[in-house]
Amino acid sequence: MDVELKAITKRFGAVVANKDVTLQVRAGEVLGLLGENGAGKSTLMNVLCGLYRPDEGQIVINGTPVQFTNPGDAIAAGIGMVHQHFMLVPVFTVAENVVLGVEPVGRLNHLDLKTASAKVREISARYGLTVDPDALIETLPVGVQQRVEIIKVLFRSADVLILDEPTAVLTPQEVEDFFGIVRSLRDAGKAIIFITHKLNEILEIADRISVLRAGRIVGESDPATATKADLAEVMVGRPVHFEVDRSGAAPGDAMLVIKDLTVLRDDNTIAVDNVSLTVRGGEVLGIAGVQGNGQSALIQAITGLMPAARGTIRFLGQDITHASVRARHKLGLAHIPEDRQRMGLIPDFTVAENMVLDSYYDPRYARGPQVQWDAVNQWAATAAAAFDVRTTSVFAKAGHLSGGNQQKLIVARELSRDTKAVIAAQPTRGLDVGSIEYIHSRLMAARAEGDAVLIMSSELDEILALSDRIVVMFKGRIVAEFDANVEKPEKSQIGLAMAGVAA
Amino acid sequence: MSVNESLDAARDKLLQRAAPDRTEFEDLVIVPLFAFAVALILGAVTMLATGVDLATIGRSYVALLVGSVGSVNALSETLVAAIPLVLAGLGLALGFRAGLFNIGAEGQILMGGLAAVIFGFTFSALPFVILMPLSLLAGALTGAFYAGIAGWLRAATGAHEVISTIMLNLISYRLLDYMLSLPWVQREGRADPVSRSVPDAAELPRLLEWLDPNLRLHAGVFVMLLAVAFVYWLLFRTKLGFEFRASGASPDAARYAGMHASLIIVIAMATAGALAGLAGANQVLGVLGRATPGFSAGIGFDAIAVALLGRSHPIGVLFAGLLFGALQAGGRQMQVDAGVGIDLIGIIQALVIVFIAAPLLVRAIFPWGFRNRQKGTHQ
Ligand SMILES: Nc1ncnc2c1ncn2[C@@H]1O[C@H](COP(=O)(O)OP(=O)(O)O)[C@@H](O)[C@H]1O
Ligand SMILES: [Mg+2]
């Protein structure tokens, strides 16, 4: 089935989300739709799947113009979308979720879950999705939940699959599996629109690439010949630097010294197992590892959010093993947390309130029991402007900002005070290249100022780009260490260590 | 333009406040108004269904209006009923903001009121300027202590405050009964559980006696207004209020920010209890003049509705409390004039809450009151 979008324009009030967009996708190919956050990708696809009506332009299927008034029409025409945010009922089984809305019924209108399960199993086997139809959604990892969304669409006999930033929620390992699934769908003759802002991914999976910027198609390219730099420039509208300048490494004194640290999870299993680490001023230490190997617990122990069961943490010569979160903060420890939505900021609070989330008590912002909101607002505006946080005003709710701007808000809050050490967990997860470039430059600026910088990331490229030294964690232990300033380690070396193969 | 100048310009732009959001206005003003209208209509339908004729229904709604705002006396009664509702409602709202669902206002009112009475008659020799404020304070502190128990249980053991405050309510009923029968509390020469009277010097003075000795409006109205201002200040202007709101909105972010979760829980509960205790003290020192079994008369539960209706905002709570006070005062008139049971008021109050809690339903019933919103969500 071939689908064509012709000169689509979609406005939200004064915002033109899509302008004159023309796009085709054919059966048996993966069309990569590349664009920064806010470029209008989701809006365009919501038009295609019948959620929005275009203000201008039309949709043509196999040469015939069609009009969708609701998602049901689009599904009937064979177009299905897997949304950025999943729409699953956590307490239902996979099969129940898949048939929701199109339940097969037997006599007397009873719900025929057997048929549903069988059908799910069949789809799952045909495309290598390996999903158990009887598992409860809430017990499944995100990667599997996503496959359930795909099965939902396939169950409704879709020939065109729209995948809206499908990899945003996946770990690197899950991404590889996911690409396998996408390929098997393509080989089965489905037309696939794969939306992302990640350059590596689009080059790997797409057969053809269209780039969307500020609502318009600004370029098309062939992944066989395109380079990351070309694509990034088209997508962002200016040249982007991927290489972080790490010249002038001048490691100073040891600032953060961790000795024999053991951290237990809530259920008393060992998360961090006897780890010793030193981070010196003016250097970046990268922690690599497959998620769930203790990196998060290590960072939470350093920042005071998880207690140390054994061992010591010294910062600037002081023993902070049992110090409170605030005491560590006051000593100059900045923390960019892993989960920005849940921990790093409060979506319901304004940008200004979030800017002082962990420093509202400081004499600069507070007098006696009162917070001086005027001072806070002034400072928040200065910081937002300096750190390029794009928001309409400091009184806007932080939850209304795009992911990249939320993260810049957190970075602004944590780095614009007098810091001695920066602990950054997944500092650029899910962000577009422009924001990533910016945040990296800020982290390097902290290093240049002589801060000790500790970075945890599941993106190996990020670790390699930023770190002076790299340690690899596996099952709570440090299993390998590399000094990038002596000899740049190979990705494969680190990868092996991450998989638990001793270096 | 230099870099600095352009940064300054960007900064100034960020400091501009956007015009108030239309949706916000709709949620805060239009939804409650329509909810109230629907509740009145459904109340009428209920009366019809129980065989009340149209003329009586009309009469009862006229009585509701007259009895709540139709005269000086009506206004005075409305305010008298509103005072404890607003005070206790403020406490609950504060708790909601901090993420605590406190069901215990009823018990805190009883304990606070009882303490105010006991303090009043025990130190009856003190002059008015000292005794009255201290009696109020005794009520507030006792309420704070009583609610603090639930806060402490939550912070120290994780016991959920919904359960523990319900249990504390049950304890408070019996504790009150017991205390009222103690010889040093019980009124001399009485066999039934009634406390000694509040001495004149502890009473909240009536404000409108010069106009008409029957007007019951008392100085508690100032306590109420002060409390509204205080809670507003506390929540939105202080460090502690910031901590309350942060803990309520996102406990994880509050922990990350170095806030002390257990301490905040205890303080928030105690502050809520102080306000409820103050409500109880206002009742005994301003209206009842003594403590009797169950003198709180469900105010602590109505206050939950008031706090919800007021969107946990001090100003909202004030208006919601006034509305509920008006319904109470008008309801009594309704009973007298039209013979319609006061229970109907309970139904109307409950319906208001149901519709407030379901803004989408109200939008669906009254589509013309709301500007059309673009379908689909912002991603
Ligand atoms: N429902 C909506 N109402 C108003 N503006 C919207 C809505 N959805 C998207 N937008 C705006 O349209 C633009 C494109 O958004 P979107 O399609 O979500 O981008 P992308 O998916 O590429 O990140 C953004 O500026 C966004 O703020
Ligand atoms: Mg999107």
Question: What can you see in these coordinates?
Answer:
Chain A is α/β, with parallel strands linked by helices. Chain A folds into 3 domains: 234 residues, P-loop containing nucleotide triphosphate hydrolases (Rossmann fold, 3-Layer(aba) Sandwich), CATH 3.40.50.300; 165 residues, P-loop containing nucleotide triphosphate hydrolases (Rossmann fold), CATH 3.40.50.300; 73 residues, no CATH class. Chain A is built from 17 helices and 22 strands. Chain A has a 6-stranded mixed β-sheet with strand order 6-7-8-3-9-10, sandwiched between helices. Chain A has a 6-stranded mixed β-sheet with strand order 16-19-20-13-21-22, sandwiched between helices. In chain A, helix 14 packs parallel to helix 15. By secondary structure, chain B is an all-alpha fold. Chain B has a domain of 220 residues. Chain B has 15 helices and no strands. Chain B is globular and about 85 Å long. Chains A and B meet through helix 10, helix 11, strand 18 and helix 13 of A and helix 1, helix 9 and helix 10 of B. The structure holds adenosine-5'-diphosphate and magnesium ion. The site of magnesium ion has 5 residues of chain A, from helix 1.
Question: Which structural traits does this protein have?
Answer:
heterodimer, A: 503 residues, alpha/beta, Rossmann fold, 3 domains, six-stranded mixed beta sheet, 22 strands, B: 379 residues, 15 helices, 72% helix, globular, disordered C terminus, binds adenosine-5'-diphosphate, binds magnesium ion
The CATH superfamily label of the largest domain in chain A reads P-loop containing nucleotide triphosphate hydrolases
CATH class of the largest domain in chain A: Alpha Beta
Major β-sheet profile of chain A: 6 strands, mixed
CATH domain topology of the largest domain in chain A: Rossmann fold
Oligomer: heterodimer
Bound ligand species: adenosine-5'-diphosphate, magnesium ion
The strand line-up of the biggest sheet of chain A is 6-7-8-3-9-10
CATH architecture of the largest domain in chain A: 3-Layer(aba) Sandwich
Broad structural category of chain B: mainly alpha
Strand runs of chain B, count:
0
Largest interface chains and counts: A-B, 50 and 30 residues
Radius of gyration of chain B, in Å, reads: 23 Å
Poorly predicted parts of chain B: 373-379
